[in-house]
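Recap for those who missed Tuesday's class. We walked through two folding examples back to back. For each one, the amino acid string is listed first and its predicted structure tokens come directly after. Nothing is annotated here on purpose, so try labeling regions yourself before you check the end of the notes.
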Amino acid sequence: MSENIRTTYSICPICGKQVVAEMIKKDDGVYLEKNCPEHGDFSVLIWKNKIDILSWYGEVETIKPGENSQCPEFCAENGLCSEHQSSTCCTLFEVTERCNLKCKFCFANKEDSNDKSIDEICKEMKQVIVKGETLLQLSGGEPTMRDDLPQIVTAARELGCKYVQLNTNGIRLAEDEDYVKKLSDAGLSFVFMQFDGIDDEIYVNLRGKPLFALKEKAIDNCAKYNLGVTLVPTIVPGVNSMHIGEILRYGVMRSPSVRGVHFQPVGHLGRIPSIPQNNSRFTLDELLFEVENQSGGLIKTGNLQPAQCDHPMCGFHGDFIVKKDRTLYPLTVKRNDTPGCCCGVENPASRKREFVGRRWKRAGISPSSSQSCVEDLSNMDYFLSRVSSHGFTITSMAFQDAGNIDIERLRMCRLHVAKNGKLIPFCVNYLTLWTDD
């Protein structure tokens, strides 16, 4: 039994031309089905019916014929088109193509080359930074390959960045404490650290070497200099998809040093082992189900909301306080019970950016939220102090690839890559077309 529940637009994963796509609900999941006159039919799994997909969508407007007809080709060449519906929340800025790992999956898939000078970096940053607003994510490659990264952080701050975030595998942060201090002194806001589990077999499989001890040391070094760390697991079916609960419990136990967990179901873009089959996909609703199932009820699905400033299929977010007994007090309730959302405010990108900034940046621990105090979340002073010091987020980003890319989603993207002074939607910038052999 199958049902056509929505019509959108996608691309042929081989030639990249835009095509009509139908969302077809079947007994085992929802599929994005499309046809290219030259390369034939494609059916790509996007949902596993763990949650009703239309309920999750809410009231997102369906893309109409003729809208965004030049995407993604135009955006890849020229930056955001005039029909793009969302402003920038986070600007990803690559500072190097070098890396000290060769991961099996990597959206960047960079090859070593000479780094741009810091003067060139500053000139490009100046083109995309909006003073007093920008959240700049320094990425690569591996940004910590640059000895002058602290100077780049300082320059970004001087150009007016409100938040500067580091996207890293954490190796140098573990091995070079003085480097961490320099980053903190330069004004780094928080760290976004690759973290695929607490079992070294996972790292050997995905990253080529055991890394867990280094991850722990990186968290410790960041804690010494008051840099909050968000753990970023890439979830790959059969590799670490059964370790979601362990990752969450580890993150909660390391609060307040760890500020949250940001799950990324594996995206088949950039460097990938092979063309993805449907059994290699880990869908957003499957992640939601496993978060509750594997956490033993520590986190309820009802306390995780669809992305409200991006497209709901792009991810979810949940906001919590870590209590003294290491349970979580939810601050996020079901969407239908929430009065309003950021889509109804004048600048939803700003609201999302401030949510990230407040929650991922580490605050000092005040006496009123210390371990020695009696815990009383009904006391407003204690509540405000505890949410500042021990706030914890559970978020996700489900990247799109050539198989499941949806123009309806793409036009709402708020994660943009800075390239030659232009801003390009993340999934367009790293899009990898398939071969037809």
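Example two. Treat it independently of the first, because the proteins are unrelated.
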Amino acid sequence: MSAFLVQIQNATVYLNDTPALKAVDWTVRPGENWALVGNNGSGKTTLLKLIFGELLPIDGGTVHWFNSRTWNGLAEIREQVGYVSAEYQENYDRNVTGLEVVESGFFASIGLWQKVTGPQKQRAQECMHLLEIEYLGSKPFRSMSYGEARRVLLARALVHRPALLVLDEPCTGLDIPTRERFLETLQILSQETQMIYVTHHIEEILPAITHVLYLKDGQPFRQGKKDAMLQDEILSEALGHPLTLHQTNGRYWAANRRG
């Protein structure tokens, strides 16, 4: 059996009696960083819920994690998978300090309800130092700027030293300078942890990304190595709009195709 972080086979998921995902086959292997690309409604969020174990496919489909065929519960998955999203930021409504937000990552909680050990506090501070946000340790979370809060949530996702970091449209709501600083940080972090980056903005696909999976109408449209997938015709068909790609310094940019 070849090694994998996540292996999804023949996964079909229904939401409200409607198929949200259909016959998904996808494997994330060691050393791979994936961009998950698709328009709104293509099934990206539902696929993430499969990865987190929050949804299960109907009979015949399977999801496995970290080289194991045994279901060991959500707690084990969440210890190995870090998560950052704009939606989660909106839902984090407890006005605790930045350090407390980071510490809450040990308990997968919104707010801090359990006693933090000395080693846990030290690790939380290390993550804030890594992201250069120690100054936010005592600042109330709800008084932070949008970009500050996003970096605090990124530190929160790192406290367990996750094997896999899932970023669900993490640059939503960020202005361009803040977005670029955030992406630069992710590029550095890619040396330590693997990533799944969910987006419909091609310019956010980092040089560290090695593979691309396109979702369309709840199904994998195309998947493979990044350079093969980021081609004009494939992108245009996947997103349903004629586009031309340009590459600069390892980043890709999409524009309307002329003519």
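Answers for example two:
The radius of gyration is 19 Å.
The mean pLDDT is 90.
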